[in-house]
Amino acid sequence: MPRESADGERRVALVPKVVEKLRTRGVEVVVEAGAGLGALIPDELFTQAGATIGDPWACDVVAKVNPPTAEEIGKLAEGRTLIGFLAPLTSPETIDALAEAGVQAFAMESIPRISRAQSMDALSSQANVAGYKAVLLAAEHSTRFFPMLTTAAGTVKPATALVLGVGVAGLQALATAKRLGARTTGYDVRPEVADQVRSLGAQWLDLGIEAAGEGGYARELTAEERSEQQKRLEEAITGFDVVITTANVPGRTAPTLVTAAAVKGMRPGSVVVDLAGESGGNCELTEAGKVVVKHDVTIAAPLNLPATMPEHASELYARNVSALLELMLDDSGAVAPNWDDEVLAKACVTRGRD
Q1: Active site includes 124?
Q2: Minimal CA–CA distance to 271: which of 240, 235, 246, 299?
Q3: Burial (0-12, 13-18, 19+ Cβ within 10 Å), 112
Q4: Active-site residue among 121, 188, 241, 274?
Q5: To 10 degrees, what angle do helices 310-328 and 16-24 make?
Q6: Chain-centre distance of CA 129, in angstroms?
Q7: 150 sits in which H/E element
Q8: Catalyzes what (predicted)?
Q9: What pLDDT score was predicted for residue 214?
Q10: Residue 251: per-residue pLDDT
Q11: Whole-structure pTM over 0.85, yes or no?
Q12: Could you tell me if 301 and 288 are in contact, meaning their C-beta atoms sit under 8 angstroms apart?
C-alpha cells in the first residue's frame, strides 16, 4: 500500500485489522512509510499487525484509493496487479497507460452491483460516508434548527429536508437527517426505491417520472422528461429548508435537478448540498468544491467527502479491497483470477499484455 498522492486525500487502502486478516492467508503486506498518517494510523500499528514498512511498488499487488499518476504507473512493473478507484469511464488515458505498462488492473467502481459482490462494493461503502457527512454540512450551514424544539420562549418547527437521488448516499442522508429531527422527503426517478424511502420514516415525492436503469442506476432522461422533471421539481423545492442532491449517471454529466429559479424561490437561509459537484453538479448554481451564497441560499458542493472522515472511510474501503483480493487468490495465496467469475471479469479493466 503506497501513500496517496492526490491533494486532500486522507483515506488509505488498507488498515491494520485488514492487514492481520490478509496475513492469515499467507499474504505479505508492505506499507510505504507514513502511508496511514492522513487516516491517523502510524506505521507502528501496521507493523504490529504484521506489515513491513518498505517499497510497495515492488509488490505483486498494489492497492490504492485514487487513480495512479503517470509517475506512479511508471513504478509498476509488467505483470503487476493494481486495485483501486481507476475512473475507467472518465479517465480512459489512465487505463490506456496501465494497459501499455502491462499492468493487470481492477477498478473498484466497476465491481458489479450484485448480491455476491456486496462485500466488495466500494462505491456503496464510500457513498454511505458521503451521505452522512452531507447532512452534517447542511446542518452547519443552516440558519435553522433541524429538530422541533419546545422551549419557554415557544415552539420551533422542525426543518424540512428533501433528498434528490436516493441511492446509497441518498438513503444515508435521509436516515441521518431524520436522526437529527428534520422532516424528511425523498425523490428518485426509480419508483422501486419508494418503499426504501418510506422505511426510513421519510415521505416520497412523486413527480410521475420514472427512469429505472441497469445495475441499480437510473437511466438518462429524455429531453422532454428532463424538462417536465425540472418544472415539477422547481415547484416542490421551494417548500424545503434543506435540499441534498446525490444524482449521478456513470460516465456522464450529472443531471440538473435544482435550477437557478428553484434556488431563487427557496426561503432565505435555506441550504443546498450538492454531492454531484465532481461531475458537473445537480444544482445549476453549483461551484464545484466551493460554498457560495446565491439569492440568500447557501449552496455547498464538497469534493471527496469520504476523505473528510478518513478513519471509518478507510476501514470500510479496506474491507472492500480485502474481499476483492481474497476472491482472486488461489489456495497457495498467489494471484490467480478466475475469469469465469463475473465479479473479477467485470472489475478488471486491463489484463496486462494478454
Answers
A1: yes
A2: 299
A3: middle
A4: 121
A5: 20
A6: 7
A7: strand 149-151
A8: NAD(+) + NADPH + H(+)(in) = NADH + NADP(+) + H(+)(out)
A9: 56
A10: 78
A11: yes
A12: yes
Total residue length of the chain: 354
Q: Which residues of the chain have pLDDT under 70?
A: 210-219, 353-354
Longest dimension (CA), the chain: 74
CA angle 289, 293, 299 (to 5 degrees): 50
Report how far apart the first and last C-alpha atoms of the chain are (Å, whole number). Answer: 25
Cell of 320: 472492500
Catalytic residue among 5, 48, 91, 118: 118
Query: Residue 238 and residue 31: Cα distance in Å, rounded?
Result: 50
**Cell 507493523 belongs to residue:** 47
121 is catalytic: yes
Single-letter amino acid code for the residue at 11: R
227 catalytically annotated: no
Closest alpha carbon to 256 in 232, 236, 233, 283: 283
Catalytic residue selected from 23, 113, 219, 226: 113
Q: Helix or strand or coil: residue 252?
A: coil
Give tens-digit pLDDT for 13-31.
Answer: 999 999 999 999 899 999 9
- 237 grid coordinates: 423545492
User: Domain segments of the chain: what residues?
Assistant: 16-110+309-351, 130-307
Whether residue 229 lies in the annotated active site: no
Q: For residues 277 and 289, what is the distance between their CA atoms, to the nearest angstrom? A: 7
> Looking at residue 232, what is its pLDDT?
87
So what's the pLDDT on residue 218? 60
153: how many CB neighbours lie within 10 A of its CB? 7
Fold (topology level) of 130-307: Rossmann fold (3.40.50)
d(CA 68, CA 96): 12
- Among this protein's residues, is 118 annotated catalytic? yes
The topology under which CATH files domain 16-110+309-351 is: Rossmann fold (3.40.50)
| pLDDT computed for residue 207 by the predictor | 84
Q: Annotated catalytic residue: which of 217, 219, 226, 351?
A: 217
Residue 203's beta-bridge partner residues?
185
Model confidence pLDDT, tens digit, residues 239-264: 999 999 999 887 788 989 999 999 99
